């Protein structure tokens, strides 16, 4: 058994800037406690930053630790994998203390909703059964109607 503290952990992971709309950074928590069934990150979004559109091959749980943010869910329209139309189906406001479950293969985005406020959450990525790694597919989109490519 291992113990760590999210405020004391300084194991920052470099993030791919193409996956976010502005500056975002994260701390890896799962490495500190040596968990094998999930990846756990403390993700920090600078003012107005959010993820690009993406989906996971396993379930995800978000636990909001500070700020105001949102989770937006989208529906794919069409059968192509790289370029397709989208429709927003739900927006969920997030504030400190909120917990949300995102089922696998749901197209979504999350992060800060205000250009003057930072936002952070713990992301727990639950590995799909019989998988050794958690896979996320990232998309370039206009967040309204169109996905133009896989990033």
Provide a concise account of the structure shown.
With 151 residues, the chain is mostly beta strands. It is built from one helix and eleven strands. It has a domain at 12-71 and 91-135: Jelly Rolls, CATH 2.60.120.
Please tell me how large the radius of gyration is.
15 Å
Strand content: over 45%
Unreliable sequence segments: none
Classify the fold: give the CATH topology of the domain at 12-71 and 91-135. Jelly Rolls
**Could you give me the name of the CATH homologous superfamily of the domain at 12-71 and 91-135?**
Jelly Rolls
Shape estimate: globular
| Count of helical regions | 1
The strand count comes to: 11
For the sheet with most strands, the description reads: 11 strands, antiparallel
The CATH class label of the domain at 12-71 and 91-135 is Mainly Beta
From the N-terminal CA to the C-terminal CA, the straight-line distance is: 37 Å
- Succession of helices and strands: EEHEEEEEEEEE
Structural class: mainly beta
The mean pLDDT is 90
| Proportion of helical residues | under 10%
Tell me which CATH architecture of the domain at 12-71 and 91-135 applies here: Sandwich
